[in-house]
Amino acid sequence: MTEFYLKIKTIDEINIIELNGYLDAHTAPQLEQAIAKLIQENKFKIIVNFSQLYYISSAGLGVFMAFIENIRNNGGDIKFSSTNDKIYNVFDLIGFPLIYEFYKTDEEAINKFKSSRV
Amino acid sequence: MIKKLFHKFLNFHLSILILLIAFLSIKILFMFKSEFWISFLSDLISIPIVILVVKKFIGFQNKRKFTQIQLLTGFIILEIIFILFSETSLYFLGPTLKSLKSLIIKPTLFIGIISGFFSVVYIFFISIILSILTILFFSRQKTTIKNYYVITIVYFILSSLGANFEKYYDILWIKYTFGTLTIAFFIVLTYLNKWVVYLKRKEKLKVIGLCNILLVIIIFAMIKSGSKEQLEELISLFSSSIVTAYNLIFGMALIYSIVLLILTIFQLPATEVIEKKTFEIESLQNLSQMISKVLDIDELTSFIIQTISKMSNSNYVWLCLYDEKDICSFYSRNNNQKVEIDNIKDKIIQNVAPTSGINIIDLDSLDTELNTNTDISKILYIPLVYGNNLLGYIFLGFDKSTQLEMEDFNTLKSIGEYAVVAVQNSRLLQKSIEKERLEKELEVAREIQRKLLPNESPKIPELDIASMFIPAFEVGGDYFDFFQTKEDEFSFVIADVSGKGISAAFYMAEVKGIFESLSKIIFSPKEILIQANKILCKSLDKKSFVSAVFATINLKSGIFKIARGGHCPIIIMKDKAIKHLRPSGIALGFNCSNLFEDNLEEISFKLNPNDLLILYTDGVTEARNKNLEEFGTDRLNEILRKYSHLTSEQILQNVIKDISVFSQEFPQHDDITMIAIKYSGVKDDRILFKNQNHR
């Protein structure tokens, strides 16, 4: 039920976190640690890929809120990509699209990072 | 002090002893003639004295608990003192004795006193030696030797008494028969002696040494010399029994030393093996005790390290246990040792192969060195494996000369197995304590939540209100409330605090306080949410937020106003038509700038009689079954359509029934909250607006 894992890959200094499974109060600390580690390594450009995520709870949403201020203050961002309808609906209800950028694919998000760098 | 002495005086044994000594003195002073009945009288007085002294000595030993080796040493010292005493006194008395030799046949008072004095010293000496032998016989004795002992003592007394019969009546058999029997029984007693077995190797070596010294002294004391014979003659003036008893006791001491020496020498080679086995068994027992007792991992690790250190004869033992982050944290006897392995531990861990079991790494092959100059040249490691999990390692440092036998490996292996179970147990216990604590905490959280929610739905003529709340095991932080702040205005709120457990419960309490106070002073749902957001922004931590819907209904006009901050849509049913209202709005505590205000929308429309409002938290739509399917909005819509003709209470009951049928035994992971409100129109038949326009 609470099976969850994540993979991180880096493309051109942009870190893509791919989430898998169920992100809830029990699995959220894994994501929290992963992002905290990226920040520690001064990696502030983060894309979160939701294509393999089946469920996200309020605790899961809280993880992004916890770091966004710090990341943006350091010139980085968390961008979301590949959210399926269900996940997007959750984000939408809470009001995430007003604060975070959502993209259909990782490439779009990467391009956005690259274009804003110039 | 005086009182104490007085009490001691009253001591029964002591009184008898004093009485006997008094008798003895009288006897010495007034009856010094060499006659059978006088000697016999001396014996009758001496025997109880010996018995009493032995008893006293045993009583003293029970208090002080001298070890066998101490007793043997005492034996030797006593004998040396005694020999010195008799030799010096003989030296001084020698000439006198020679000149007085004739007087022995016709004794005077002077001779009587000298004879009495030596006799008392002999009696005392015999008593002490007998005491020591007695204590040695009974120490660590499991079989009953009491009968043998008593018989030996009886024969000993009889044989001694026989001496006077020999002297005065030439009856030899009494002395020699009982003397032989005494020695025979004594040999049996000596053979039954067991305490040597329990001694450690070093102690056994000491015993051997002491026996040798004892033998030399006894043989020296037993050699007959002319002056010695004179002394014996002098004593036999008092009573010949004492001389016989003295010789017998020396014979016994001789036999005891010889038998003890032989026994100990024979047992010596096996000692080390027995010692090691005993220690191994004790350690394993201790370890298995540990499994059930120790809670603290630090205590457990230090015990394991100590045990292994003792069993392996290695001073360098390290234990490393993997933590959640897969870092092997090291435990050792002291910090110095911790420092020593710091340098090489990474290399060692790289080089160990957990599947190979116990193995040895040569430090030379690692091209690295220990921090300090220790003589460790190889490191033995024992992987601690539990099922498929590697818990950690035990490392032992050995010098070049140490040769490890197959047996040592097996013992260390079994200790390693015990250690695994103990560590695992300790961890599981820790976990279950933690779990219990969490459960208690959750209970508190549930209690808080239950007390903060309304007990029953308000009774308002224009509205049919029902609410339902089913808490999840881990409190979810759902909140709802009803307010009637003005006569015609009814307002209500439903909210969901992010996260779970006690923090969610406390935030929920705060949320209740905020809405309760704001609802009294502000009457626009949008305005209330804006103010609530401002307050929550300050107090919530970064990753927490609150989704909420605040709504008001004007009971007279049926005007319904609503604002939504990140919460689930509001369902409105008019006849069979269902609408999910989603006025825009971000969750509270999420953004503290104007963004919240700018994006918050308040909508209003007019309710008609029989219009049904349903508010819920995500626990409803996200209820799951065992296939991890969610209940979803479609199922909810379907149910509502089916039951919308019923009362609010009945509708909710049917919804919950369908949810539980859907999720079956699958555990509920979030709070489920639902509010149903049916507008029944103005009861006093006031004209209703026909306007159905709404967003």
* Main β sheet profile of chain B: 5 strands, antiparallel
Q: Please work out how many helical segments of chain A DSSP would assign.
A: 4
Largest sheet of chain A, described in full? 5 strands, mixed
Strand numbers in spatial order across the main sheet of chain B: 2-1-5-4-3
Given the C-alpha coordinates, what overall shape of chain B results? elongated
Which parts of chain B are unreliable, with pLDDT below 50 for 5 consecutive residues or more? 685-695
Mean pLDDT of chain B: 83
Q: How would you spell out the order of helices and strands of chain A?
A: EEHEHEHEH
- The best one-word shape of chain A is globular
Give the SSE map.
The complex is a heterodimer of chains A (118) and B (695).
Chain A: E1 4-11, E2 14-23, H1 28-40, E3 45-56, H2 58-73, E4 77-81, H3 85-94, E5 101-103, H4 106-117
Helix pairs in contact in A: 1-2
Chain B: H1 2-10, H2 12-30, H3 36-64, H4 68-99, H5 101-105, H6 109-138, H7 146-169, H8 173-191, H9 201-222, H10 226-238, H11 240-293, H12 297-312, E1 316-322, E2 328-332, H13 335-342, H14 345-351, E3 359-362, E4 378-386, E5 389-398, H15 406-452, E6 463-470, E7 478-483, E8 489-497, H16 501-521, H17 525-539, E9 546-554, E10 559-565, E11 570-574, E12 577-581, H18 594-599, E13 602-606, E14 612-616, H19 618-621, H20 632-643, H21 648-663, E15 672-679
Antiparallel strand pairs in B: 1-2, 1-5, 3-4, 4-5, 6-15, 7-8, 8-9, 9-10, 10-13, 11-12, 11-14, 14-15
Helix pairs in contact in B: 2-3, 2-6, 3-6, 3-7, 4-6, 4-9, 4-10, 6-10, 6-11, 7-8, 7-11, 8-11, 9-11, 10-11, 11-12, 11-15, 12-15, 15-16, 16-17, 20-21
